[in-house]
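Supplementary Note 3. Input sequence used for the single-chain structure prediction.
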Amino acid sequence: MFKKPLSNLKTSAPLRSSDRRKLKQRVIATYNISPEIGDVLVPEGLMSRRFVTNMNIQGVAYLSPDGDPLRFSIEKGADELIPTVYTLWKKYHLLPCITTPAAVIPVLMGGADLTIPGVVQVLSSQTMVPPQLVAIAQYNKDFPTTHGPPLAVGHLAVDLGSLKAGGKGKAVHVLHSWKDCLFSVGSKVDHPEVLVEIREVGKSNEGAETDHLVQPSDPAPPFSKEGECHLDPCDDVALTRTEVSMILCDAVLQAIRSTVKSLPTASFPIPVGTFYSSFSNCTACESA
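The predicted structure, written as discrete structure tokens, is reproduced below.
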């Protein structure tokens, strides 16, 4: 939604004390948090700022006194207050979380939705149903009982049964991500270097119901059935050597599993250049 710069940005206007109190009470009631946490998430000096996206969607962003967008609403669901990653970094467990491999994070930052094959873990609860808001974080294979900080937020697209079964299709319709153009309205700080412990979501400590991990069967790389990588070209998305290597490896494996295995024996051996140009349809890999 915020892949391109916002237009018609209005001047920030301070929220009246009464409006700020109402907003705080909504946040406390929605997430079942304490008034103290409510003060952190809805601080004094909150400001509002109207905007229009490149898709001509109108919305309102609520900014901290320092200018960081903390949450926003859009015309299609004006009553829904959507937390940004700036807010999720203040309280990591505010939303149920879905984890995905490191190689998928740049894809989300490029404006793509999260697909079911890209899901590794789901921290589920009985109330987690579409189109509930969820956070997306990086999966930590070395410490699977933890995950990275939330890096995107969106609406759950399918029920938990579909995620458990694996398959294809969209898992989350992404609304906002780290380093998108809404994020850039703020201080543009780097994400926290933390490991977030997996625990119960959406319940208070008293009488909390412990969530469990849902492991989709046979997780697959984040590619379409044609083997195309969904990484959109984006000038402000920089891939590390490790991420490029992971995407390249996934592209090669996908090509072998789909197209290459059906070729006649006479087609082998295949020169490396021919293999990449003809079967590995990932621009990120070709540029590597």
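DSSP finds eight helices and 13 strands in the chain. Residues 200-236, 281-288 have pLDDT under 50 and may be disordered.
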